[in-house]
Amino acid sequence: MQLQSRKKLANGVEMPILGLGVYKMTDRDETLAAITKALQVGYRAVDTAALYYNEAEVGEAIRHSGVPREEIFVTTKVWNSDQGYDNTLRAFETSLKKLNMDYVDLYLTHWPVADKFVDTYRAIERLYDEKLIRVPGVSNHHQHHLEQLLASANIAPVVNQVEVHPYLSQQALRAFCAEQHIAVTAWSPLGRGGVLTDEAIQQIAEKYGKSSAQVVLRWHLQHDILIIPKSVKAQRIEENAQIFDFELTAQDMQTLDALNQNKRFGQDPDNFKFDF
Ligand SMILES: NC(=O)C1=CN([C@@H]2O[C@H](COP(=O)(O)OP(=O)(O)OC[C@H]3O[C@@H](n4cnc5c(N)ncnc54)[C@H](OP(=O)(O)O)[C@@H]3O)[C@@H](O)[C@H]2O)C=CC1
Ligand SMILES: O=C1CO[C@H](CO)[C@@H](O)[C@@H]1O
């Protein structure tokens, strides 16, 4: 089934192109229902973080889904206040316990905390060596952060998860990551919903008989960007997965590319306030 389409990462692991993001899912029943629905309609990846306080629900929904654990790709992240070498190892153990799993597929440094992110990544490399994670990665790393890591890493980060959507296309960072064989996952792939009322996107959507969300997700796909849209609504979870049955023309891709305005809905990693 196409829905389970996976991308082969630099270390040979296959990661589903589409996953469910679960940020802001704090209500237990709502979280369980959303993940269950996603798995039912073919999603095979879930993106959580220690920060989201729902790792336990992610684990529970997966265990009760009937889908074998090894078919599902679970991402979690070490939060900023837990960074540094020893703290990261401890934070990972806590996440693993909450997930109630014996390994995590992808473990990420959530943000590049100055003076800590290099040591944080060293701990992630150790977890990879110990086979407790299948893929080592980072999030919110600009090119200069990656260059700093690459200078000392034994294993280059395999994934960088950053904010990407048509208003923030991250072309330069994506090109650098491609050169370094680092896969890019888009967080807020729908711009937190903020790009969906764009007139140009709506016009393209109408032409294909698709929704704005589907067109935006398809734009990511055609740029080889992994996606983790979040929704708690069953109908939208399904809608966001129906993106494998049409193709945007080169001209429509160009129109969408031209919407870039370097506009962030989240924070800039260089100005992030690590105060929560
Ligand atoms: N590494 C990092 O620092 C970060 C990682 N992330 C990850 O990325 C995931 C996705 O990003 P997120 O910030 O949640 O934003 P998204 O771009 O995924 O947008 C989510 C918003 O769009 C709405 N939505 C979803 N589908 C549709 C649709 N088909 N039509 C209309 N509205 C829709 C959702 O509402 P509703 O739920 O009501 O449907 C929600 O308000 C997060 O959940 C998290 O896992 C996010 C931020 C930072
Ligand atoms: O993952 C995340 C969810 O969104 C938060 C608010 O923008 C981010 O800070 C965080 O990185």
Automatic annotation (TrEMBL):
Record Gene3D superfamilies: NADP-dependent oxidoreductase domain (3.20.20.100)
Keywords carried by this UniProt record: NADP, Oxidoreductase
The NADP-dependent oxidoreductase domain, residue ranges: 24-260
Ranges that cross the membrane: none
Superkingdom field: Bacteria
Similarity remark: Belongs to the aldo/keto reductase family.
Listed name of the protein: Aldo/keto reductase
Naturally occurring in which organism (per UniProt): Lysinibacillus louembei
